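[step 3/7] inverse_fold.run input=structure_tokens len=163
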């Protein structure tokens, strides 16, 4: 059975893919494991079940929110000392609000330039090397770098002419 999935990328774009499961759908769309670093979350289109953000991203967000909430508590109560000023409490609460706004702002990833070498392989600006049996990355369905998750920008090999 084929399902449709909505991929929600960190740059704020969405993309619909299809497959028997999320892994199959990504593979069919030419989205490799490295590109998943650019994925915020996915959702199943045909029954509305939500996909999950990566565990490491969620853990990091939870740690930062916990630290900010602890800061608010420390400032507000000053652990038995005199009460904090209204400005101190407001500054701590604003820090939490700013972080929540940051989480809601899509991340912008730099494109990854794939430059074709004289052998036909593709060197990436993030340090990878990839080779297709035939054609360009876009002709093979590759949209995102499998190493860093950046959007692929292709540069063809140009044979240097000797004068």
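[step 3/7] decode complete -> sequence:
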């Amino acid at each position: 059975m084929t399902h449709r999935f909505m991929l929600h990328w960190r740059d704020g774009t969405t993309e619909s893919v299809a497959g028997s499961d999320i892994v199959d759908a990504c593979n069919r769309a030419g989205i490799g494991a490295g590109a998943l670093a650019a994925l915020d979350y996915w959702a199943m289109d045909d029954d509305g079940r939500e996909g999950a953000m990566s565990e490491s991203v969620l853990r990091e967000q939870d740690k930062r929110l916990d630290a900010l909430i602890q800061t608010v508590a420390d400032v507000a109560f000053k652990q038995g000392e005199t009460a904090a000023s209204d400005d101190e409490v407001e500054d701590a609460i604003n820090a939490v609000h700013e972080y929540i706004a940051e989480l809601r702002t899509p991340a912008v990833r730099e494109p990854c330039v794939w430059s074709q070498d004289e052998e036909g392989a593709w060197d990436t600006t993030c340090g990878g090397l990839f080779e297709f049996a035939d054609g360009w990355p876009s002709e093979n369905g590759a949209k995102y770098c499998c190493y860093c998750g950046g959007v692929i920008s292709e540069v063809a090999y140009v044979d240097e002419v000797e004068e």
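[step 4/7] annotate
The chain has a mean pLDDT of 78.
The first strand starts at residue 3 and ends at 9.
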